[in-house]
Amino acid sequence: MQHSHTTTADERQGIFHAIVASVRDYAMFTIDLKGLISTWNAGAHQIFGYRTEEIVGRPVSLIFTEEDIRAGAPESERERAARDGRAIDKRWHLRKDGGRFWADGVVTPIHSGEGCVIGFVKIMRDATEVQRLEEERERLLLAERTAREEAEAAISARDAFLAIAAHELRTPLTAIVGYAQVLERRLSHIADLSERDRRALHAIVDQSDRAHQLIGSLLDMARLHSEHDRLSLGLIDLCDLTQQIAADVEPLLYAHTIAIDCDGPALVLGDPLRLEQVLQNLLQNAVKYSPDGGHISVRLSQDEGSVLWSVSDQGVGIPEGVGGRLFERFYRANHTTGVPITGMGIGLYVVHELVALHGGTVEVASSVGGGSTFVVRLPRAPGS
Ligand code: ADP
User: Fold this and answer.
1) By CB distance 3.0 to 4.6 Å, which of 93, 159, 223, 267 could disulfide with 381?
2) What is the pairing mode between strands 267-270 and 100-111?
3) Lowest-confidence region among 20-24, 106-110, 142-146
């Protein structure tokens, strides 16, 4: 015969005590209002090392560290628990053998039937390993942050050095290129100049120009990364800027011709020096990758939100399949015969980065032998 059995209050109490007593991973014990330990479970024995009969009736401060006792932690923990209903207890505690462990626990008040606080229960576990891992993680994070900061400092020192070195090298080179060109022009009229001298002079002009361009690329890149060199934005008419730059680069166009096509102002919010650098790099490439006598055109147009700034040449073009890699640092498309290999693959990278800094994009349309058109798209100035 089966009969149902309802547990009595005493039985329930017994079961509860049995559970508490058998829990091993958690220390569970009670503290009376005077701060004396009143019960102690097996988990507490295991974690702290005290047997029940050794500790019951003794002050809870036994398990606190000296610093915490001096700071009044045992009392303030109970006050907080009584006031707030619980007090989180994450601190170093002392074992019987004097060893410390990191405890993660909570103290809660025990209420009488009338609602008065008659003691406290403290439940905690040994979280030393968790804490150790946490500290290790913090240490690694800190080490990683320090290493990154050091690397960043080293990189910016390198960029600053490169910028200074490139700038200092470029100044004398600019003078050499300029004077060599003047000399070549003057001496070309002298009839009895030997062919050897003429070639030597031409080599000086050619090579110094090449070195000048390489140093220019280095300077561009160093400046791009130098943190002191941020954009200083202003309202710019790209049409004006283009006319001005075209006039400036005229002497560098050699045997090429240039046409500018713009109908009305093309206003953008930009840094004039950086945008000048963009156009100069595109023009330099148009000259470099076109045969003498080639025609270059710069066109400005607008659509709803953008100003389109395109530079076209009738040069060697770009092999198919190169795609966006053209704008990567140090990338150089392999042209077939007849193309001078003078660059470092920096110019278009700088163009791409500067345009991106202005919130724009750059694309190229090209075919081998059919010339190239680079299109820079920049956001129109607000209200224009
Ligand atoms: P580089 O210093 O080699 O000219 P860039 O970054 O300016 O470096 O250009 C990368 C490559 O893109 C060049 O090596 C060249 O192959 C190709 N390129 C750039 N502009 C043109 C152009 N107008 N016509 C044909 N190829 C070009």
Assistant:
1) 267
2) unpaired
3) 20-24
What residues are paired with 88 via a beta bridge? 106
Report the predicted TM-score, pTM, of the whole model to 2 decimal places: 0.63
Whole-number Å distance, alpha carbon 126 to ligand 1 midpoint, is: 65
Secondary structure element (H or E) that encloses residue 148, with its range: helix 128-187
* Token pair belonging to 133: 């891992």
Q: What is the pLDDT of residues 155-193, one digit of tens each?
A: 888 888 888 888 899 889 988 988 998 888 888 888 788
CB 180 within 8 A of CB 198: no
174 Rama sector, left if φ>0, alpha if ψ -120 to 50, beta otherwise? alpha
Of 310, 318, 330, 368, best ligand 1 pocket probe by most atoms within 8 Å of the beta carbon: 318
Question: Closest by alpha carbon to 169, among 205, 199, 134, 208?
Answer: 208
pLDDT in tens, 305-340: 999 999 999 998 988 888 788 999 888 876 654 555
Ligand 1 pocket at CB < 6 A: 217, 285-286, 289, 313, 315-318, 326, 331-333, 335, 343-349, 372
Going from the C-alpha of 378 to that of each of 193, 232, 280, 290, 324, the distances in angstroms are 51, 16, 16, 26, 18
The β-bridge partners of 121 are: 30, 108
| Token pair belonging to 111 | 């209420």
The helix/strand/coil state of 58 is: coil
